[in-house]
Amino acid sequence: MRQKSDQLRSSKLITYLLLIVILFLGLLCLYYGSSFAPGSDPESLRRDGSDPVLGSLPGPQHFDDDSLQNLELPRTIPICDMKYSELIPCLDRELIYQLRLKLNLSLMEHYERHCPPPQRRLNCLIPPPAGYKFQIPIRWPESRDEVWKANIPHTHLASEKSDQNWMVVKGDKINFPGGGTHFHYGADKYIVSLARMLKFPNDKLHNGGNLRNVLDVGCGVASFGAYLLQHSTIAMSLAPNDVHENQIQFALERGIPSTLGVLGTKRLPYPSRSFDLAHCSRCRIDWLQRDGILLLELDRVLRPGGYFAYSSPEAYAKDPENLRIGNAMHDLLKRMCWRVASKKDQTVIWQKPTSNGCYLKREPGTQPPLCSIEDDADGVWNVQMKACISQYSAQMHREKGTGLVPWPQRLITPPPRLEDIGVSPEEFHEDTRIWKFRVNEYWKQMKSVVRKSYFRNVMDMNANLGGFAAALKDTDVWVMNVAPVTISARLKIIYDRGLIGTVHDWCESFSTYPRTYDLLHAWAVFSELEERGCSTEDLLVEMDRILRPEAFVIIRDKPSIISYIQKSLPALKWDRWVSEVEPSTDALSVSEERVLIARKKLWSD
């Protein structure tokens, strides 16, 4: 009897021990279930089993403060395969092929944004190329003329454009002599020639500060924009991810304001009346297609009296097809009320009217038509281009211009279009003052680890009125001011201040190459993302993609979000240096805030 009792106790003990082991293993699996060690097999990164780069971070979700505090985070985030080192998720031609999208190649739809659905999004950290150099960085202004070849190991443009002086490979560096398709002997001389054509004072293209914002379409490696900077003029240099696929990557590595984009079927992500000059130097664009819809898009973004400089190679001077195109463009632009401001050799500069006067005098039925009065010329995100002329507002028509003061006073002077968004001049000045104070506080927080000269390419992910960028006016940086889609109307104020930027939806990936920004500033970006039900984790991985090694993030948001993000820093490898403070309250504080500044480590696969 006693033997049976002992056996029964032993059996129960073994059962209990097995249950404890099973429970322990279960907890262990739960702990590591969402984790992948760096360098693990890319096949394990799938969400839906269809692509090895796809990950398994949580999808779109909404968290209240308590759930954010208690949410379990992945302990590590996997490293992507090296073949994804230059991935741009929404401009990925392989994705277009996999999704079998039916796109019109003649309309450049394949160069427009096509983002992966949530279940196919990236869930790994993009590795830098082998030999990536950061220990001896080439800072601006030296970076205008040379970059490390290892950071962008592509030399095909150097040989393809060798006769045009785009770029030259010299040892372990790539040099940029300043040439272009139409200005083989240097963009600096070409810029002076444009100023002379327009008879601007002292051969300065800025025209006394009245010409500030430029759109350079088909920009190549952006040497035109690079040399404009010394003329107190800033260009948004724009080119698609086409056969010259690394041109914008080179531009950003050089520290030149630039972005990926194309004149295709959708409006450019810029408000109406944003640019003083549009420029196209043999940019291979068919301006006559679809009733001149691409020229009409330029018309939309040009300011009253704005210019369009178009250059073609001398070899085309007597080419019959080029002459036909030139005559047809002249006829179309005349019907759009543009006039030839100057013409010399193979460069012609048109100027658009300063008021609606010419439009109202056109014969009935003249093409292209005027846009309907209901059309919102500032509505741009995923909006199709329209083959019509955007009329000026009643105020612009009366004033025959924008009413903007010259640069640099333009930066701090309330622009007339503030009224459009319901902001008073007093609120504008207060916003400028607050951001000057906030930025000074950021520098104090970082001064022990970095100098102001460290930064060149900066992005403000929620730019509001452009106050953050305005506060950086005395530093050697340029800022990509991003207006989230929910407040996109404010971007026109940023342009009216003489700054540049773009509209973007942070529920999606940004149109830039990996490793292109030195500093990302995110004020209330995650709060807005949370309200819309988009994934915080997806945005953190996207920010990591954009950041260069050793770059910084400044995240200003409510405490629960800051606490959650801080727990993510080791997984993101953003714990090279970390600082968190509680800032003072000001008129822009909608609730209690915390400021988290973190630095990304350099790592390799």
Describe the structure.
This protein is α/β, with parallel strands linked by helices and about 600 residues long. Helix content is about 30%, strand content about 15%. The chain has helices spanning about 1-30, 65-70, 95-100, 155-160, 185-195, 225-230, 245-255, 290-300, 320-335, 355-360, 395-400, 425-445, 465-470, 490-495, 525-530, 535-545, 560-570; strands at about 145-150, 170, 175, 215, 235-240, 260, 275-280, 300-310, 340-345, 345-350, 455-460, 480-485, 500-505, 515-525, 545-555, 575-580, 595-600. The strands form three sheets. A seven-stranded mixed sheet has the order 6-5-4-7-8-10-9, with helices on both faces. Strands 13-12-11-14-15-17-16 form a seven-stranded mixed sheet, with helices on both faces. Strands 1-3-2 form a three-stranded antiparallel sheet, covered by helices on one side. The longest helix is centred in the N-terminal third of the chain and has 31 residues, at about 1-30. The radius of gyration is 27 Å and the shape is globular. The termini are far apart. Residues about 30-65 have low confidence and may be disordered. GO terms for molecular function: methyltransferase activity. It is an enzyme of class 2 (transferase). Pfam families: Methyltransf_29 (PF03141).
